[in-house]
Amino acid sequence: MKTVTLTILRFNPETDREAAYREYRVDVEPTDRVLDALSKVKWYQDGTLTFRRSCAHGVCGSDAMRINGVNRLACKVLMRDVGDRVTIEPLMGFRVIKDMVVDMEPFFAQYRSVLPFMINDSRPPQRERLQSIADRERFDDTTKCILCAACTTSCPSFWANEEFVGPAAIVNAHRFIFDSRDEAAGARLDILNDREGVWRCRTIFNCTEACPREIRITKAIGEVKKAILYGSTAP
Amino acid sequence: MSAPAQVAERGTPRRGGGYAKPRKAGGGNFELISWFFMRLSGLLLIFLALYHLVWWNLIVGVAHLDSQVVIERWNNPFWRLFNVALVTFAMLHGLNGARYSIEDYVRRPGRQVAVKAVVYTLVLGSLLVAVFALLTFDPAVLVNR
Hints:
heterodimer; A: 235 residues; 15% strand; B: 145 residues; mainly alpha; 3 helical TM bundles of succinate and fumarate reductases; 5 helices; 2 strands; 3% strand; disordered N terminus
């Protein structure tokens, strides 16, 4: 057990005119996660500290935040990996509702805009729509997205322009564009062939670095760009 | 299958199934073409600029660089075209990069147009002068001086 200092960017719209850092000292085990440290602050020191959490095991994507300047899931970062002084801030690029809670609606609007669902109007076969292992492999990586927004909010192109569809939406478009059972790849490629679509990606790789699921996002975006260029999703 | 109305914000469901191609926000394939141009010109510039650098600085050598060497190269149409390609790709590659930055960071529409107008005029004007000089300048003028 050791004592660490958490420097948390706090903002309460009811009382604060602007966000300010506040320090909290908590006792943690090296194997505790940042989420555990935040919970200790909330439960034992300051009940007004506000953050999202749900599964707390890196699956739901609720607790993405900036930890020591980089986007991480608080439930996947161990205290032994962040040092004795930890700075915790909300994700960049979204309106802060309170403390770590940001307005995710623009993010989900961009997500919805790429038709992130299976579209196949052909008559279904007697049993399931079969797919080869090789065909499944093509979009395997992008099925892992948990929509935590760590990638989109680490992207300088998104910081500069919130109309940019963002890496997370492109990843979720990729998941269906390269699915052999889906029939709307053309529509999605048309949506993304836009100044605010894939072309605002400057290949900065922040998204790939930020992804807690280790999705090779920049590679996926590159594949979408190539599919638009060649007018085909063929391998 | 039909999607809930709020889902199909860009792709519109068609009557009888499928999805109509969404309308473009504008620009057509300009962004696609400029992205491809950046890849192509970037690749070419590696060879053009590297050759230019190695030839003038290492093979000819800075110590031997004089007007005579320049005149010899200028008299050869191949090297004129080489230099036209080098300056054209370099300037347009840079200009497109500047356009990306302007569009990312100059957010007010009026100001963006103004900044673009200044940058485009400067870059394209310089490019025009450079290409004009490369193609029309007679190095004999230097010899007869």
